[in-house]
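FAQ: What does the model actually see?

It sees only this:
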Amino acid sequence: MNVIIKYRLLPLLLLLPAIFTGCKKETIPKHNSGVPIVIEKFSPVKGGVGTEVLVYGDNFNNDTTGVRVTVNGVKAAVTGVVQNRLVFMVPDGAGSGKITITIGGNTVTSTEDFNYVAAQYVSTLAGSGQEGFRDGEGAAAMFAFQLGQSIATDAAGNVYVCDAGNSRIRKITPAGVVSTVAGNGTGGWQDGPAASAMFNHPYGIEVDKDNNLYVADTWNAALRKITPEGVVSTLAWIGDITDVVVDKRNGDIYASQFGPGTIVKVNGDGSTVTVGSGFQQLGAIAMDSKGNFYGVDNSRSFIGKVDAATKNMTIIAGVSGQTGLEDGPGNTAKFDRPWGIDIDKEDNLYIAGNGGPNYGGGDNNTNHCIRFIKAGTWEVSTFAGGSSKGYNDGLGSLAVFRSPTGVALDAAGAVYVLDEGNQRIRKIISR
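And it is asked to produce this:
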């Protein structure tokens, strides 16, 4: 994600001698249509949108208006050219592929691929940055996030969040319009119509295929359900409940328990059975396409996998009991009091790096970021943000978060973040 800045100056500096030569009285030869265009090499060989690439070769054209360059078939902006040097800017969303240069009727294609590295662009979907309560559009809305809430999405791209400080469930449309789904704002327990229902510091939330919402109503030790028609009911009483997940294959419901460090299946009669354990203080949970569970151990700063068949838990990323911000192989990577988790269609994991009802760490936490864990290899990388806290939208390393606690993906692959310290909902798209 740093390639844009890193390579911005190099191609221009390398072009300077040629440009100065062009200031002399001698005329720089133009493209010769009877001679093939030559691509000898290009540098850098990988980068993201906005990366400037220097192409070495021959029979280019010093008039940029007559030169067309594509990367993987996507047109690029040519920013400088002389007879044997050409600079272009990698276009948005190009993908990896060959570099093609066309001048007049002549075309040449590189023998090697340019490797496109997608960068993440972070924007603010909703939230004023101030703690409070207000429905409305975008920056007019206000939340009161407190220590460990999660976030979920439905098939239409709507986002749902647990607003613990306001004891409400909130909805954000793709356009950023915030409304209250359920909860009257008074902390307590009350089933019934959504507008009069009461919650008490809800943390976890999930959406099923029929748009029913399931809420881990933490301080009530209850699993609640909200129908699309706006009826709230209690499905089960579960001590220390922190999150809920629905099996997309069959609709079964599971919940996590913070203190016991267990994952339980919720039966139709409200009873529960333990299907996973081995965590010390369990935050959010996720389930992959094969029915395996993934849980975030908040106190010991690791990500664990519970095998669907054996029910055994193994650590896939993080070093138990050690905190930090280190990418790399799962068994050496480090996290710092992680809390949120979600999974994509390829079973890759996304971790919200900061949070938890007792051990969040807040501004002293080193992980003001979203981490990415590659399925199967468990290689860990930083997806967006970093160790510095603050607030800034932007591309790649320019984006800054403050104590993100929840993360969720939509059907199109966009990533949503409950940015607790900034009292905002952020959106990340890969470009």
